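Supplementary Note 2. Why include the ligand at all?

Several targets in our set were suspected to adopt different conformations when bound, so apo predictions alone were not considered sufficient. For every target with a known small-molecule partner we therefore ran a joint prediction. The input for fe (ii) ion is given below.
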Amino acid sequence: MKTAGLLCLHSLSFDHALRIAMNAPLPPGAEVIGLFPTPFMRVPQALDARLVDGLVQHFSASTDRENNSSDNLSHTAMLKPSDSPLLVDAARAITPRLVEFGTLLFGEPLGWSLKEMWVNVMDPGGRQAMHNHANSFISGVVYLTPTHPQSRTVFMKSPGGHDFAFKNDHAGMTPSEYNADKWISPQPEPGDLVLFPSYLMHAVPPNLGERRITMAFNAIPTRLDSWGYAISFSG
Ligand SMILES: [Fe+2]
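The joint prediction is reproduced in token form.
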């Protein structure tokens, strides 16, 4: 009897796992609720071709900061929209999207400002190590040139690293949003914009394609209010 009971339990568990793996419908009345999801906004063609070309021409010649983990990646200095009419135009296109994305993060339309912007020039073989962005709430990337499919921006869960880790990670398992620890963002086209919470870890795998140019930025809200305990930010 004991053995049969164990077999039965094992069998139910296997059926349940198989149903999830095969994306089969759940039993009537059952549901899976994705708790506390992380927003990621993708806006195709957020910047028009004229502006994208102008940014590439103007800023790809001014990347004078070496990346500290890749010889084939360089950056401009931190820029502000007021540094160039091109950046003013870019900020005008991006800011309404910040308000929309910020409403997801904080539950109301707030005032948002682009605190700093910079251009990344990644030559073949270049890569960007895993990082996130400090002193910021919304970060984003505008893709200015075609991106090789192997060099799409990858987002990952915070790596932790302070305790033993247990994983079920092999060819026979089916990754999903509930068990994956990294996510490869969709193939971008020049002019496409993505927005994500600044705490989210991300990286760019080695560039197997042509020179890859992106513009990144950080944004802050003017003010956050928690039942009268308010804090204001200025960039
Ligand atoms: Fe970044």
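The domain at 36-161+176-232 is CATH 2.60.120.620 (Jelly Rolls). Residues 1-10 have pLDDT under 50 and may be disordered. Comparable summaries for the other entries are listed in the accompanying table.
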